[in-house]
């Protein structure tokens, strides 16, 4: 009996393996053909004048939608509607405003240049490296975003990340929401018409518009900081989640083939379009994405009290959530390994010896190399993807008990909005 069960499981495993191998070989073959048609060396002149002009441009579609809903001045209805959008995964409430229905219809349209084969391959690459990408999100992408002082001021002003005077619970929820957005968008089929990633990106875009509306009602200094969540800040954030992540992977010895690089960045180019990024702020290819990310970081990096507070909250989050695996020194070493000492110093990351940073790099590289060896075998790659899915699920649960992106008006916003409309 046991032998029969074992044989059945073995046959099923072999069957799934063969199917997996055939599917992935076909995806890669088609992607390689598409790569021949792409100019992977052309880059844009991301000069300071162009980027500075984008600090005064926002997102007309999402902003118009939120303005129309807010004009109704029905606070309870507004909050109930936003809550319903989260809980109803497949469709909008029947009583949703026509403006909101039009927004979800228009923002769901992918750009004409979106290529399904490159999207499929990019999402497969994410699935194979998702745990590492999740780690880099917290130890490289987010803190480097904080280093851009003007953009970080939005997070600090709205208290979206440090609601309740910096409570770790609120911060953990926001980190988990960001991680969920990336997982949904970059998982296979995530950008399909009914994909979780498509809907999550549309919701994040609306969250941005709500926060913009809120800040502009509260004397936001656009001359000093640029418009809130402007086109440059949005592009910088998306590049930190994509191109600059690839730099972090290289630090620990994970190198992508040219077709893998382009496929991965292609996914994020599509996500950028859905998220409301202007066409002329979407990079042409992987090299252009890296150039854009560094151009914005180099231009916007500056010390700020808000950035230091956000980084302190992030470090508290890391020290608490990673306690069973990493200690405080290890978290510090990993931050400095991924960002370098200049950015780390600017964000008040505590100093640590070069020896500890070197040991962290060796440890991470050793573990990553094992995964890369397994990944070269398509059969083991299938197993690795299963492990990654499970690991990402555990990571998200460790961050937060919620399984949804919590689309809502922050309490600080709703309370103030209610007060304003009772005058």
Shape: globular
Q: Helical segment tally?
A: 20
Kindly state the percentage of residues in helix. Answer: over 70%
Q: How many runs of DSSP E, i.e. beta strands?
A: 0
The ordered string of helix (H) and strand (E) elements is: HHHHHHHHHHHHHHHHHHHH
Q: Over all CA atoms, what is the radius of gyration? A: 22 Å
Distance between the termini: 77 Å
Largest sheet: none
What percent of residues are in strands?
Answer: under 5%
Helix-strand category: mainly alpha
Model regions low in confidence, pLDDT < 50 over at least 5 residues? 160-166, 406-423
- Mean pLDDT rating: 84
**Count of the domains:** 1
Task: Report what the structure shows.
The chain is mainly alpha-helical. It is globular. Helices cover 73% and strands 0% of the residues. It is built from 20 helices and no strands. The protein has one domain.
Write the layout of secondary structure elements.
Elements: H1 2-36, H2 48-53, H3 60-70, H4 75-87, H5 98-107, H6 116-146, H7 149-158, H8 163-166, H9 168-186, H10 196-216, H11 222-225, H12 231-241, H13 243-251, H14 258-274, H15 286-300, H16 305-321, H17 328-346, H18 354-376, H19 378-399, H20 411-421
Helix pairs in contact: 1-6, 3-5, 3-10, 6-9, 6-12, 6-13, 6-14, 6-17, 6-19, 7-16, 9-10, 9-19, 12-15, 16-17, 17-18, 18-19
């Amino acid at each position: 009996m046991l032998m029969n069960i074992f044989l059945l499981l073995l046959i099923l495993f072999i069957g799934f393996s063969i199917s997996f191998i055939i599917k992935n070989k076909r995806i890669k073959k088609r992607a390689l053909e598409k790569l021949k048609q792409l100019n992977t060396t052309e880059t844009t002149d991301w000069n300071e004048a162009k980027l500075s002009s984008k600090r005064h441009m926002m997102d007309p579609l999402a902003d118009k939608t939120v303005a129309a809903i807010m004009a109704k001045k029905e606070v309870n209805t507004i909050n109930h509607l936003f809550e319903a959008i989260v809980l109803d995964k497949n469709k909008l409430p029947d009583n949703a405003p026509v403006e909101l229905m039009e927004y979800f219809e228009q923002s769901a349209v992918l750009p004409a240049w979106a290529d399904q084969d490159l999207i499929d391959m990019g999402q497969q690459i994410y699935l194979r490296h998702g745990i590492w990408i999740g780690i880099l999100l917290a130890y490289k992408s987010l803190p480097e975003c904080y280093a851009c002082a003007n953009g970080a001021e939005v997070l600090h002003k709205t208290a979206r990340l440090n609601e309740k005077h910096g409570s770790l619970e609120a911060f953990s929820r926001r980190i988990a929401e960001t991680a969920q957005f990336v997982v949904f968008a970059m998982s296979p089929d995530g950008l399909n018409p009914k994909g979780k990633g498509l809907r999550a990106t549309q919701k994040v875009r609306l969250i941005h518009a709500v926060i913009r509306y809120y800040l502009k009602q509260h004397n936001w200094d656009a001359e000093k900081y640029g418009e809130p969540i402007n086109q440059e800040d949005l592009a910088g954030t998306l590049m930190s989640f994509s191109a600059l992540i690839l730099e972090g992977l290289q630090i620990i010895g994970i190198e992508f083939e040219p077709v893998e690089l382009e496929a991965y960045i292609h996914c994020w180019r599509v996500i950028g379009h859905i998220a409301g990024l202007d066409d002329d702020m979407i990079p042409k290819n992987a090299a252009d994405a890296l150039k854009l990310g560094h151009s914005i970081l180099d231009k916007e990096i500056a010390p700020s009290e808000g950035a230091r507070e956000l980084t302190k909250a992030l470090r508290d989050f890391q020290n608490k959530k990673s306690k069973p695996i990493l200690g405080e020194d290890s978290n510090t070493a990993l931050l400095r390994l991924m960002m370098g000492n200049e950015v780390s110093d600017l964000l008040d990351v505590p100093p640590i010896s070069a020896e500890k940073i070197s040991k962290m790099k060796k440890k991470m590289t050793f573990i990553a190399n094992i995964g890369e060896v397994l990944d070269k075998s398509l059969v083991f790659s299938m197993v690795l993807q299963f492990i990654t899915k499970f690991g990402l699920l555990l990571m998200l649960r460790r961050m937060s008990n919620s399984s949804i992106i919590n689309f809502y008006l922050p309490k600080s916003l709703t309370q103030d909005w209610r007060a304003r409309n009772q005058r």
